[in-house]
Specification:
This protein has ten helices and five strands. The termini are far apart. The chain is an alpha/beta fold. The longest helix is centred in the middle third of the chain and has 13 residues, at 145-157. The chain has helices at 23-28, 32-41, 71-82, 90-95, 107-115, 145-157, 168-174, 199-202, 219-228, 233-241; strands at residues 12-17, 43-47, 60-64, 85-89, 136-138. It folds into two domains: 12-157, NADH:ubiquinone oxidoreductase-like, 20kDa subunit (Rossmann fold, 3-Layer(aba) Sandwich); 168-241, no CATH class. Bound molecules: iron/sulfur cluster (SF4) (3 copies). One iron/sulfur cluster is lined by residues 168, 192, 196, 198-200, 207-211. One iron/sulfur cluster (SF4) is lined by residues 168, 192, 196, 198-200, 207-211.
């Protein structure tokens, strides 16, 4: 089937989950209006949530979740060896996500406290790129299905995809949302990467930065404004650390 005289490729896709809530995978199977054309544009060869078929001949691997156990390392290395393109999907895969919070604790003590004399395998949380080479990261908690569809279209037609370099504030203003900072809430929208269409401020919640930092952001100005509005270093640091995308900037 040709489109605009171009013959789209039908990428063979495998979807795999590591430490995560599986919400990003669910997003891939979501958005019913476009689900049928989306599934026609790709060939699903391995995706536990939508099919019992388990093929190993995928070209593109979509990886959800972070690495938080030693036995996950060999599995991700095997997938990396098979995939021509490896894509990290969601904040867990891109930054460690909310799971990264556990790195602040002594894991042996926590294991003993929770599981007593039946400890579970556990390790410090790492993003996928800290373990294997990642070709593309699609951030978000969860990922934005519309953005994934645009990326898949680009992959199918072999054209480059560019993420917005501007922050969430731009999309927030395009929606005419009243600024949460003006309402006394902390919001990371001025430093977080756009692409989500600012659903959190539109729903009355300051941004938590699930997409990580925007390339074109002014961190120092954000800190100045947040402190001027009375937010403490601790509050700002906790917010920045929640999804792991601002590691090193807290
Ligand atoms: S990024 Fe969010 S929605 Fe996706 S797997 Fe992690 S916790 Fe779940
Ligand atoms: S609510 Fe947040 S994202 Fe929206 S304009 Fe204010 S700081 Fe920016
Ligand atoms: S507004 Fe912020 S927390 Fe909400 S989806 Fe967008 S980047 Fe994530």
């Amino acid at each position: 089937m040709k489109y605009l005289r171009l013959e789209p490729k039908r990428p063979r896709i495998g979807v795999f989950d590591f430490t995560s809530c599986e919400g990003c995978e669910l997003q891939l199977a979501n958005h019913e209006e476009t689900l049928v054309p989306f599934l026609k544009a790709i060939e699903v060869v391995n995706f536990r949530e939508v099919s019992s078929y388990k093929g190993e001949d995928y070209d593109i691997a979509l990886i959800e979740g972070c690495i938080s156990r030693d036995d996950e390392v060999g599995r991700i290395e095997k997938i990396r060896a098979q995939a021509k393109v490896l894509v990290a999907i969601g904040s867990c895969a891109c930054f460690g996500g909310v799971n990264r919070l556990k790195n602040a604790y002594n894991l042996d003590e926590a294991n003993k406290e929770v599981y007593g004399d039946k400890p579970k395998s556990t390790a410090k949380v790492r993003a996928i790129k800290e373990v294997v080479k990642v070709d593309l990261e699609i951030p978000g908690c969860p990922i934005n299905k519309l953005e994934v569809e645009r990326i898949v279209q680009c992959l199918a037609f072999e054209v480059p995809f560019n993420f917005p370099v501007y922050p969430v504030c731009v999309e927030c203003k395009q929606r005419f949302t009243t600024c949460m900072m003006e309402k006394g809430q902390l919001c990371l929208g001025s430093i977080a990467q756009a692409g989500c269409n600012a659903p959190c401020p539109a729903g009355g919640l300051g941004c938590w930065g699930c997409r990580g930092p925007a390339p074109d952001h002014n961190f120092e100005e954000f800190m100045t404004l947040a402190k001027q509005r009375g937010f403490s270093e601790k509050e700002i640091s906790e917010r920045l650390g929640f999804f792991g995308g601002f590691e090193g900037r807290r």
